[in-house]
Design a protein that fits this description.
Blueprint: E1 4-7, H1 8-11, E2 17-19, H2 40-48, H3 53-66, H4 71-75, E3 81-84, H5 99-106
Parallel strand pairs: 1-3, 2-3
């Protein structure tokens, strides 16, 4: 299965876009897969500086790991563009937590 990642400002109008964010800009009305969105507490901890990027990514992947095996794959379809708010370049490591969804789909 091939998945892509993007962010609202650049890819939100893509025909295969699906939001895996807790919310989306008012200008967008695209399908959502909230099961793949980070927990509100995880987002709050990261945004407040209580945890760093590495801890955020680990905790997000743990969340994905708690989903029923195969459930992530059922939610995703080949060619989807997984969308959230942040540009991948906005993180300190120039990586993106959305890639955790790709990894979870491949297990």
């Amino acid at each position: 299965m091939k998945l892509y990642t993007g962010y609202f400002a650049r890819h939100g109008n893509h025909p295969r876009a699906v939001s895996i964010a807790r919310s989306q800009p008012m200008a967008f009305d695209i399908p959502e897969i909230l099961e793949l969105a980070p927990a509100r507490t995880l987002l709050a901890d990261y945004k407040s500086g209580r945890i760093g990027w590495d801890d955020y990514a680990i905790r997000y992947r743990v969340r994905l790991g708690l989903l029923v095996a195969g459930h992530v794959e059922e939610l995703l379809q080949d060619g989807m563009v997984l969308i959230c708010w942040e540009s991948p370049m906005s993180t300190a490591t120039a990586t993106c937590w959305r890639t955790g969804c790709e990894s979870a789909a491949m297990r």
